[in-house]
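Human: My hope is that you can spare some time for a protein that puzzles me. I am handing you a single protein, as its sequence and its fold in C-alpha cell form. Could you go through the record with me and say what the backbone is doing? Take your time, and here it is.
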Amino acid sequence: QVQLVESGGGLVQPGGSLRLSCAASGFTISRTTMNWYRQAPGKEREWVSNIVSFGDQTNYADSVKGRFTGSRDNDKNTVYLQMNSLKPEDTAVYYCHCRRYGMDYWGKGTLVTVSS
C-alpha cells in the first residue's frame, strides 16, 4: 500500500528556511519520480519541484528556482525539500506526490506559513 507522509511545515519569518520531508512506504522512491506541489489559499494546486527516478536530477518551478532544493535519502525512503529565502507568497499547503502504474498518490500535506 502506497503511503506518503509529509512533515516539517510551520510558521517562519520572511527570509527564513524550512525543510520538508516526505516519508514513503509501499514502494521504492529511487525508482519513482517524486514531486512536490503546493496549494495556497484560494488558488489552484501548483507543481513546485521534482526529483527524477534512477538519478539525482531535480527540476523546479521558476518561482522557487535558486531558493528550493530537492533531495532524497534512499536508505530512509524519504524525499526532502529544503526551502530557503522564504517569501510570504510561499505560504501554502505542500504536498508530496508520485504516479505509479497510472495512479496518482498524494500525501495529506504540511502547512507552511511565511509571515512576520
Q: What stands out?
A: The chain has a mean pLDDT of 97. The CA atoms of residues 15 and 86 lie 5 Å apart.
